[in-house]
Please model this.
Amino acid sequence: MNLKITSFSEYKEVYDYSVREPENFWAEIADSFRWRKKWDKVLEWNFKEPSIKWFQGAKLNITENCLDRHLEKHGDRPAIIWEPNDPDEAHRVLSYKQLHDKVCQFGNVLRNNGVKKGDRVCIYLPMVPELAIAVLACARIGAIHSVVFGGFSAQSIADRINDAECSLVITADGGFRGAKDIPLKDIIDDALVQCRSVQKVIVLTRSRSPVSMIKGRDVWWEDEIKKVETQGNPPCPVEIMDAEDLLFILYTSGSTGKPKGVVHTCGGYMVYAGYTFANVFQYHPGEVYFCTADIGWITGHSYIVYGPLSQGATTVMFEGVPTYPSPSRYWDIVEKYKVNILYTAPTAIRSLMSFGTGPLEGKDLSSITKLGSVGEPINEEAWHWFDEKIGNKQAPIADTWWQTETGGIMISPIAGVTTTKPGYATLPLPGVQPVLVDENGKEIEGNGVSGNLCIKFPWPGMLRTTYGDHERCRQTYFSTYENMYFTGDGCLRDEDGYYKITGRVDDVLNVSGHRIGTAEVENAINMHTDVVESAVVGYPHEIKGQGVYAYVILGESVHDKELTRKNILQTVTRIIGAIAKPDKIQFVSGLPKTRSGKIMRRILRKIAEGETSNLGDTSTLLDPGVVDEIKAGAL
Ligand code: PRX
Model:
């Protein structure tokens, strides 16, 4: 079968085939990749344990698929076009051949520094080409990368390093994001005070800010590259991996306090990232593709690095933010590189929308033929603005629904092939079997219905476990409903069978497309000395999608509440990172609790949403009076 679906009738045919004969379907897709040895068995699975194995017995290295296999015919094709934070700094273009050379060099650097197959490497870098190089170099030598987004605090990094027992960290002296300089190495130094497993730190020069370099532990990226060069640039043979060997760990928030290390494996992830990229964006050779995500999140892993490179695409990597130095920045980039496909997030669209059409004036966006959206529900207003102002009503919008755990896009229009509908992720990709279930786990059939979104059959890109704690994986995703993967999302299926994701049904917030667990934020707030207890909920936020609303009970000795408010924000920044800072903090004397001590979040959510008239039944509350006080003080 052809990797790419090119018409609506073909979509329907292929979809039916993928449900009827999933193993044959996926074997045909997998055939278009380069394997050192083909699989003995396509799939073995049960969702009870869970145990999911794709392409057992197969051998491969994902970097041969992302790099080596393109060299002969397309070695000079641009693989990565890098746009720096500062538009006056020179941009960089790395051809497939150059990227291959750099990945090989850095693979040798890692080997010289003692990294072996199966070792965990933490990557904390700004959005520079070396981030992609580091990721691919790990994959090449069989090391498991754990990329941590540059916005996380030292404490969050330490937790992640310790959970995975990383032996090496790759970072930079500093990074640039908009007008801010981020002291990455300082943050790593703070984190490493708590990390016993780390033996080496490789530091890339980026900001030229002063950093401490610890003898025996810290080495410069550039010096290590020179050593490889003086060794005559030996080839960097790939580590031959089993399909089910670990490729990477990526931490994500859930409804409990501690982030989980989602585990993806080599064979299935590769097939899924490549297949979904080729199809959803209908990528044609020569097109310039720009995904605005950060490689610190799954979108960057799958759709800046692995997906596009596995298909020989040209992928634009941007170091900065959409509003720096002006809200025209994305449009300048589109014009400069004649971007054909733009994949971004609703929060960025809403933020840019708020500047009006001024920043678009005189910008040539005519190169754009396809658009994508990811990370959170896209409201209709933002959808139409994206369609009209950016796509000139000519570029189909792929509203792609998926998760860190799914590895790649699950429900989405196929650009120009299947129909779009504002606010809808529309139809599942072939190979994906979504179902809606009610609270009791009963499948809700038919159209014009809503329920909780589950997936009832495995797909190659799905998570295999949560690192170091398989039971947690089982409980979180496979125990709520028997024999199904539970996404944590609510969903509606309209009369035409089109899916619309309505948001999380668990205690997870989605702030600017970033997943944040309410329990995680509460734990951070509670660490402040003056805090007795707190409860965190989300509320609708015009730009961020959701904002963080914290109800906080303070101890009696607090005199300066304004200062305490700022101190709490500082505490959250220290413990998690600035991305989790509450937008609103309301001090309260009590929280609405049931007699068994459970906080009734439903009430708190309603008050945060500004809906104070219809709070439902409050008779089971221990102290119903507290609700009036909270209502009166709502922000
Ligand atoms: O609630 C859904 C929302 O983002 C969650 C996954 O977050 P994360 O693992 O960080 O991955 C984000 C990038 C894939 C989902 O459970 N979400 C993601 N895409 C959409 C979405 N909600 C609505 N529409 C989408 N297109």
Q: What stands out?
A: The longest helix spans residues 96-112.
